Protein backbone atom coordinates (compact mmCIF):
# COMPACT_ATOMS: atom_id res chain seq x y z
CA UNK A 1 0.00 0.00 0.00
CA UNK A 2 1.31 3.46 -0.91
CA UNK A 3 1.36 6.21 1.73
CA UNK A 4 1.78 9.95 1.22
CA UNK A 5 1.98 12.84 3.63
CA UNK A 6 2.40 16.43 2.51
CA UNK A 7 4.22 18.80 4.86
CA UNK A 8 3.04 22.27 3.88
CA UNK A 9 5.52 24.24 6.00
CA UNK A 10 7.47 24.11 9.26
CA UNK A 11 4.33 24.71 11.32
CA UNK A 12 2.84 21.57 9.74
CA UNK A 13 5.65 19.28 10.95
CA UNK A 14 3.96 18.21 14.18
CA UNK A 15 0.80 17.09 12.41
CA UNK A 16 2.81 15.30 9.73
CA UNK A 17 4.97 13.49 12.31
CA UNK A 18 1.90 12.30 14.23
CA UNK A 19 0.27 11.08 11.00
CA UNK A 20 3.51 9.32 10.00
CA UNK A 21 3.78 7.49 13.32
CA UNK A 22 0.16 6.40 13.11
CA UNK A 23 0.61 5.09 9.56
CA UNK A 24 3.85 3.17 10.17
CA UNK A 25 2.26 1.41 13.13
CA UNK A 26 4.55 -1.17 14.73
CA UNK A 27 7.30 -0.82 12.10
CA UNK A 28 10.54 0.22 13.75
CA UNK A 29 13.06 0.43 10.90
CA UNK A 30 12.69 3.64 8.91
CA UNK A 31 15.16 4.76 6.21
CA UNK A 32 14.86 8.33 4.93
CA UNK A 33 15.93 8.85 1.31
CA UNK A 34 16.20 12.45 0.13
CA UNK A 35 18.73 14.87 -1.31
CA UNK A 36 20.74 17.19 0.91
CA UNK A 37 18.51 19.91 2.34
CA UNK A 38 15.21 18.15 1.70
CA UNK A 39 14.41 17.83 5.40
CA UNK A 40 15.49 14.38 6.60
CA UNK A 41 16.85 15.65 9.92
CA UNK A 42 14.01 18.13 10.34
CA UNK A 43 11.41 15.40 9.86
CA UNK A 44 13.26 12.91 12.08
CA UNK A 45 13.38 15.61 14.76
CA UNK A 46 9.62 16.15 14.43
CA UNK A 47 9.01 12.40 14.77
CA UNK A 48 11.15 12.31 17.93
CA UNK A 49 9.29 15.31 19.36
CA UNK A 50 5.97 13.59 18.63
CA UNK A 51 7.24 10.69 20.75
CA UNK A 52 8.05 12.99 23.66
CA UNK A 53 11.75 13.71 23.16
CA UNK A 54 12.66 17.23 24.24
CA UNK A 55 13.63 19.27 21.17
CA UNK A 56 16.84 20.60 22.71
CA UNK A 57 17.98 16.98 23.23
CA UNK A 58 17.74 16.20 19.50
CA UNK A 59 20.65 16.86 17.18
CA UNK A 60 21.93 15.56 13.90
CA UNK A 61 24.11 12.49 14.47
CA UNK A 62 26.36 13.35 11.51
CA UNK A 63 29.59 13.04 13.51
CA UNK A 64 28.43 10.53 16.13
CA UNK A 65 26.68 8.35 13.49
CA UNK A 66 23.96 7.45 16.01
CA UNK A 67 22.19 9.38 18.75
CA UNK A 68 19.95 7.78 21.35
CA UNK A 69 16.89 9.56 22.68
CA UNK A 70 14.14 8.64 25.12
CA UNK A 71 10.52 9.61 24.69
CA UNK A 72 7.34 9.30 26.74
CA UNK A 73 7.62 5.56 27.29
CA UNK A 74 11.32 5.62 28.17
CA UNK A 75 12.21 3.26 25.32
CA UNK A 76 15.23 4.22 23.23
CA UNK A 77 14.81 5.86 19.85
CA UNK A 78 17.89 5.57 17.64
CA UNK A 79 18.64 8.29 15.09
CA UNK A 80 21.33 7.43 12.55
CA UNK A 81 23.14 9.56 9.99
CA UNK A 82 25.18 7.37 7.67
CA UNK A 83 26.43 10.27 5.52
CA UNK A 84 30.05 9.81 6.62
CA UNK A 85 30.02 6.01 6.36
CA UNK A 86 32.29 5.03 3.49
CA UNK A 87 31.77 1.27 3.57
CA UNK A 88 29.36 -1.11 5.30
CA UNK A 89 32.07 -2.42 7.63
CA UNK A 90 32.11 0.95 9.40
CA UNK A 91 28.43 0.54 10.25
CA UNK A 92 29.08 -2.96 11.55
CA UNK A 93 31.83 -1.54 13.77
CA UNK A 94 29.29 0.59 15.65
CA UNK A 95 27.11 -2.48 16.27
CA UNK A 96 24.45 -1.66 13.67
CA UNK A 97 22.66 -5.00 14.00
CA UNK A 98 22.36 -4.59 17.77
CA UNK A 99 20.40 -1.41 17.15
CA UNK A 100 18.33 -2.78 14.29
CA UNK A 101 17.46 -5.95 16.21
CA UNK A 102 16.55 -4.05 19.40
CA UNK A 103 12.88 -3.62 18.50
CA UNK A 104 13.27 0.11 19.13
CA UNK A 105 12.49 2.79 16.57
CA UNK A 106 15.47 3.35 14.27
CA UNK A 107 15.34 6.49 12.12
CA UNK A 108 18.07 6.36 9.47
CA UNK A 109 19.37 9.17 7.28
CA UNK A 110 21.55 8.47 4.22
CA UNK A 111 20.69 4.74 4.23
CA UNK A 112 22.16 4.45 0.73
CA UNK A 113 25.55 4.07 2.40
CA UNK A 114 24.52 0.93 4.31
CA UNK A 115 21.73 -0.39 2.09
CA UNK A 116 23.21 -3.88 1.79
CA UNK A 117 22.99 -4.24 5.58
CA UNK A 118 19.38 -3.16 6.06
CA UNK A 119 16.75 -5.82 6.74
CA UNK A 120 14.04 -6.42 4.17
CA UNK A 121 11.36 -5.02 6.50
CA UNK A 122 12.98 -1.56 6.53
CA UNK A 123 10.50 1.08 5.37
CA UNK A 124 12.00 3.19 2.58
CA UNK A 125 10.66 6.71 3.04
CA UNK A 126 11.30 9.20 0.24
CA UNK A 127 11.14 12.93 0.91
CA UNK A 128 10.85 15.26 -2.08
CA UNK A 129 10.82 19.03 -2.22
CA UNK A 130 7.81 20.25 -4.20
CA UNK A 131 7.80 23.37 -6.43
CA UNK A 132 5.84 25.31 -3.79
CA UNK A 133 8.42 24.46 -1.08
CA UNK A 134 6.27 21.83 0.61
CA UNK A 135 7.64 18.34 1.20
CA UNK A 136 6.11 15.11 -0.03
CA UNK A 137 6.83 12.11 2.22
CA UNK A 138 6.11 8.78 0.48
CA UNK A 139 6.56 5.09 1.26
CA UNK A 140 5.04 1.71 0.55
CA UNK A 141 4.41 -1.23 2.83
- Poorly predicted regions are none
Trace the largest sheet across and list its strands. Answer: 1-7-6-2-5-4-3
Globally, the shape reads: globular
Mean pLDDT: 94
How many strand elements?
A: 7
* Structural class by helix and strand composition: alpha/beta
Largest sheet: 7 strands, mixed
Number of helices: 4
Strand content: 25-35%
State the helicity in percent bands. 10-25%
Oligomeric form: single chain
**H and E order:** EHEHEEHHEEE
Gap from first CA to last CA: 5 Å
What's the gyration radius in Å? 14 Å
In short:
Helix 1 (13-24) packs across helix 2 (40-50). The chain has helices at residues 13-24, 40-50, 88-93, 96-100; strands at 2-7, 29-33, 66-70, 76-81, 105-109, 123-129, 135-140.
Structure description:
With 141 residues, the chain is of the alpha/beta class. It has helices at residues 13-24, 40-50, 88-93, 96-100, and strands at 2-7, 29-33, 66-70, 76-81, 105-109, 123-129, 135-140. A seven-stranded mixed β-sheet has the order 1-7-6-2-5-4-3, with helices on one face. The longest helix is centred in the first third of the chain and has 12 residues, at 13-24. The N and C termini lie close together (5 Å).
Summarize the helices and strands and which ones pair or pack.
Blueprint: E1 2-7, H1 13-24, E2 29-33, H2 40-50, E3 66-70, E4 76-81, H3 88-93, H4 96-100, E5 105-109, E6 123-129, E7 135-140
Parallel strand pairs: 2-5, 2-6, 4-5
Antiparallel strand pairs: 1-7, 3-4, 6-7
Helix pairs in contact: 1-2
Amino acid sequence: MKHEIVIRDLEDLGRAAQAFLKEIGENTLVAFYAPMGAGKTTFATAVCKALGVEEDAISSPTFAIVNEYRGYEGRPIYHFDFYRIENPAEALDIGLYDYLDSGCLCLMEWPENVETLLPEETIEVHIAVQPDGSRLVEWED
